[in-house]
Amino acid sequence: MKSACWQIFLVNTQNFVLVYRNNSYYNIMQGISIKKNISILTHLLGWAIFGSLLFLLIPLSTRLDFPSEFWTKQIMMFAILVAAFYFNYFYLIPKTLFKNKVGLFLILNLIGGIAYIGLIILFDNLVNMQQLMHEVFRPDTAYIKRPRNLTFDFYNVLIFYMAVGVSTSVATVQKWQQDEEVRFELEKAKTNSELSYLKAQINPHFFFNTLNNIYALTNLDVEQAKTALLKLSRMMRYVLYETEKNLTLLNKELEFIKDFVELMKMRLSSKVKLDIQLPENLDDSNIAPMLFLPFIENCFKHGISSQNESHIAIYLQKEGNEVTLITRNNIFKATENTPEGQSSGIGLANTKRRLELLYPERHFLKIEDKTDSNEFIVKLKLRLK
Fold it and tell me: What is the Cα–Cα distance from 198 to 255, expressed in whole angstroms?
């Protein structure tokens, strides 16, 4: 029966995942299709405006009757410019410019400009364009063959290289945007994987130390050990569910700290003086989970002695959008045979890294190891959004 139920659960789960993936794939493809359609529409509108201004507006504004050869030439020039634009965009730039072959790119475009003017001159000679245009503008005067007007050829070369320049600019900007997106995604993936790794280190470290505390309690007071296990189960529920999220409520983090402190009190002797000042309640601001724990845990890990008087102070407060944590504790070497003695400050080092990744330029952390007064002080100020 259990096996059958489990199989049904797996099938339903697989179906749900399949539907979710199909929907996600559909949404992604739909987004790509929309962007593609917008891009095509932008190109069409751009070319329509460009062609109208350069090849239609001026001839039509003269209200003269141009021959069909003239319009054939206009269409040919426009087609060559479009072809040069996309040849440069899709082939020449990726194959030469983006592969640091700048010299080859310039030479090929220079040849392209010369070929463009050569085709125009060849077409003009074939249809005798100079005479046809003379008959349009000066129909009452006799045609006399004159040297070719190089001003128009220079003007056409400028138009050709303008199209090539726009093509190069568009391709370069798009390449830069794509590189930025890739860099951003890689940085994001790196940050997420690093944060997951750091949290994975912090959580077992905390769990290991707390179990060691409960183990010590089982030899002293079984009832207290049971109470400690209940608190630990509530805390581990927080660890399991809240640390999977990027952010948790500040009030939940406060309750977690209170449980931790209460759990630590159960193993302390009268030689340890506590000064704990935690607010009764905090607002629902968001904060990264288990961000304060390593500093508080460090107080109990290194600030307790079975032979000497010790003092631990923990202050937590929030003013506006700024949270302040201050901890003070004496420094005692942990026994080398205990897990505390074997640890090497993994929690503190990882928390520093988490602060750098999650709150860049929004946190102030000062750690003072005062050997002269045998005191370890942590001051953390965190600006929340």
Answer: 22
Which architecture characterizes domain 187-383 according to CATH? 2-Layer Sandwich (3.30)
Q: How far apart are CA 385 and CA 93, in angstroms?
A: 44
Chain center to CA of 259: 36
Taking the C-alpha atoms of residue 146 and residue 128, their distance in angstroms, rounded to an integer, is 12
Locus of tokens 């939940």: 252
| Residues 259-292: tens digit of each pLDDT | 888 888 877 778 889 999 999 888 888 998 888 9
Which tens digits make up the pLDDT trace of 106-146?
Answer: 999 999 999 999 998 899 889 888 888 777 778 778 777 77
User: What are the C-alpha distances in Å from 250 to residues 144, 281, 316, 317, 355?
Assistant: 91, 9, 12, 11, 16
In the chain, where does the domain assigned CATH 3.30.565.10 lie?
187-383
Distance CA 272, CA 330 (A): 10
